[in-house]
UniProtKB/TrEMBL annotation:
This is Ubx domain-containing protein. Gene3D superfamilies: Glutaredoxin. Residues 195-246 form a coiled coil. Keywords: Coiled coil. GO terms for molecular function: ubiquitin binding. Residues 53-182 form the UAS domain. GO terms for biological process: ERAD pathway. It comes from the Eukaryota. The gene is ucp10_1. InterPro entries: Thioredoxin-like_sf, UAS, UBX_domain-protein. One of its GO terms (cellular component) is endoplasmic reticulum. SUPFAM superfamilies: Thioredoxin-like.
Length: 337
């Protein structure tokens, strides 16, 4: 194992979820990774600004066809690479070195950019004239520029650490530089294959649980809705039955119906009005009960006198079906005359 491979950046605490390379505090990771902030949010903002300035100056001098530099602090870049199990390529330059212009031109080379895309590499860059990049160079023990470091996730003693797998110092031919990076990236991918599969399996299991939970909730809501409709139907039926039971016809109601028929016929302008009137049970305001008739069942003959008994009880002898005859009662006074 080379010295570079043994140089660990140190254990990392599990970072809270946040957008990659955007809002995570720059002093989130400490320990042997080195402190690249002064522990304040203003320092993190300053470091993000330094990164943006580096990228802008690089584009101004070498064009927009540049490596996909992360626009975040170094600590955020390391945290994102660790979280996503990806390799991070760190590029540091110094304007005081004569090889810097040629090195930067090689960075915009099509082969170099295609390699970065093919290997799914994250790239963070900086100019050591800025405080953040200078502190990163100290952390990574850079002694010569231009400088590249391949930082990879590694499992050690059951914990995930970020380690410097390769350090490239000075100007090298593009082929040699890419070859050295390729070896370390491939080794990292092979070592992390099982970890990625485990994560993918856990993620698939999590999504399956979410789908099952959602299906259960949908089924539960459907059952609850069905039960609600059945309950409303039962309640409505019970209400109709209750209202029906509240108005039980009595024997006297039939007498009133017969006695007031002439009044309803006189007030009805059509057959429909008469039908509605005949179904009404409300008596006229000035109505006086003077029954000049009796209700009689012909066979066998039985007289039913007015009473408050329910009709099922009053007509029990002929219930539930019979014919009733209206017999007029002769006026005793007219007989005497």
């Amino acid at each position: 194992m080379s010295n570079a491979d043994a140089y660990l950046l140190g254990p990392f605490r599990e970072p809270p979820p946040y957008p990659a390379c955007s809002t995570a505090p720059a002093n989130l990771f400490t320990g042997s990774i080195g402190r690249v902030t002064d522990g304040t949010e203003s320092a993190a903002s300053s470091f993000r600004l330094q990164t943006s300035r580096f990228i802008s100056q690089f584009e101004l001098e070498y064009g927009s066809r540049r490596p996909p530099f992360l626009e975040c602090t170094y600590a955020q870049a390391v945290a994102t690479a660790r979280e996503e199990l990806r390799c991070l390529l760190v590029i540091l330059i110094s304007e005081e070195h004569d090889d810097t212009p040629e090195f930067c031109r090689r960075l915009v080379d099509e082969d170099f950019r295609s390699f970065l895309e093919r290997r799914n590499l994250m790239v963070w860059g900086g100019n050591v004239k800025y405080q953040q990049a200078y502190e990163v160079s100290t952390t990574l023990q850079a002694s010569k520029y231009p400088f590249l470091a391949v930082v990879t996730p590694k499992y050690r003693s059951g914990s995930l650490r970020m380690a410097v797998a390769e350090r490239i110092e000075g100007l090298l031919p593009v082929d040699q530089m890419l070859s050295q990076i390729e070896v370390k990236v491939q080794a990292s991918d092979d070592a992390l294959a099982a970890v990625r599969r485990s994560r993918e399996e856990r993620e698939a299991a999590r999504r399956l649980r979410e789908q099952q939970d959602q299906a259960y909730l949908d089924s539960l809501r459907a059952d609850q809705e069905k039960e609600r409709k059945l309950r409303e139907k039962r309640e409505a039926e019970a209400l109709r039955q209750r209202r029906k039971d509240e108005r039980v016809l009595q024997e006297e109601d039939i007498y009133n119906f017969v006695d007031t028929r002439n009044l309803r016929e006189a007030g009805a302008s059509s057959d429909s009005d008469l039908a509605n009137a005949e179904s009404a049970t409300t008596l006229p305001a000035d109505y006086q009960q003077t029954y000049k008739f009796r209700l009689v069942s012909p066979m066998p003959r039985q007289v039913f006198e007015p009473s408050n008994a329910p009709i099922c009880e009053a007509f029990q002898a002929v219930w539930p079906s019979t014919s009733l005859i209206i017999e007029e009662i002769e006026d005793d006074s007219s007989d005497e005359e």
